[in-house]
Amino acid sequence: MTATPSDILACIGDTRMVPLRRLAPSGGAQVLLKLESENPTGSMKDRMALAMIEAAEADSRLKPGVAVVEYTGGSTGVSLSLVCAVKGYPLHIVTSDAFAREKLDHMRILGARLTVVPSESGRMTEKLTRDMVEAARIIAAETGGYWTDQLRNTDQLAAYRLMADEIWRQTGGRIDGFVQSVGTAASLRGNAAALRRHDPRIAVVAAEPAESPVLSGGRPGAHKIDGIGAGFVVPLWQDGIADRIERVSTEEATAMSLRLAREEGLFAGTSTGANVTAALRLAERLGPGATIVTVMCDTGMKYLKTFGATLSAG
């Protein structure tokens, strides 16, 4: 008999994996998708939100009744809203109209207070990221709140090392490649480090927006892939994390998200579309007999209005 969890936070992690059946290239490697949509808010960010809050509680950086402050494109904010609701912390989120409206509504429903920074035509840019970070810094300084500061917070790495251990167990140690898109770089860095401890031969591939390919030496630009591509080299990024960096355009990521839904029954956001695009490229390179794992970062239910607008325009 499965034990009853003490609260919803105990349901974070231990997500399942499924193979891609129709999208995997003929004669290519097997591609497995880690279903992070199974987490309580439908996102892998539940893992890091819980890790950041519990680490701050453990060393008294965060005390009872103190507000938590963060800037976010949405998923981290929703996950922090869940954790703070359960633990009883007030939460102030800095976000933007560039991100899915569903995420902003979800944060408010869970009790977060939002400051919404205007974007340039609904696009993610370097300036927008920096404006959000500065707004969060000011709010934390003025209120005395605890700023989780996700772009610099290394507490979250432990959550992704645990995720990698799940992947290792689920594949029985038979994994040849890992692919993940880069937002804060914590998920790629934590997973890569733990997987390479098991087997240093595992190929690690990072995905970034083709319109803003700063990790691979390009110029910053505007894109519409939620949750990734800050427009500058993020502090948690380290040279050598990835063996290869794949550039994936917003158009490619969106098209792949729709193909995942229609051909695999897996409804995910555009960061997942970027992941699968990059993973399929790696599958062709590694060939038959190899196994690649990538991540379904979140559920597409967070982007219904976004996808609806795309379909209407098409």
- Strand arrangement, largest sheet? 1-2-10-7-8-9
CATH architecture of the largest domain: 3-Layer(aba) Sandwich
Give the averaged pLDDT, no decimals.
95
| Highest-level CATH class of the largest domain | Alpha Beta
* C-alpha Rg (nearest Å): 18 Å
Query: How helical, in percent, are the residues?
Result: 25-40%
User: Could you tell me the strand content as a percent range?
Assistant: 15-25%
Query: CATH topology of the largest domain, which one?
Result: Rossmann fold
Verbal overview:
The N and C termini lie far apart (49 Å). Helices cover 39% and strands 16% of the residues. It is α/β, with parallel strands linked by helices and 314 residues long. The relative contact order is 0.16. It contains 9 helices and 10 strands. It folds into 2 domains: 8-38 and 162-313, Rossmann fold, CATH 3.40.50; 45-147, Rossmann fold.
Summarize the structure.
The chain has about 325 residues and is α/β, with parallel strands linked by helices.
Give the topology, please:
Layout (H helix, E strand, L loop, with lengths): L16 E3 L10 E6 L9 H14 L9 E4 L3 H13 L3 E6 L4 H9 L3 E5 L8 H18 L2 E2 L9 H14 L6 E5 L4 H13 L4 E7 L34 E5 L1 H15 L5 H17 L4 E6 L7 H10 L1
Parallel strand pairs: 2-10, 3-4, 3-6, 4-5, 7-8, 7-10, 8-9
Antiparallel strand pairs: 1-2
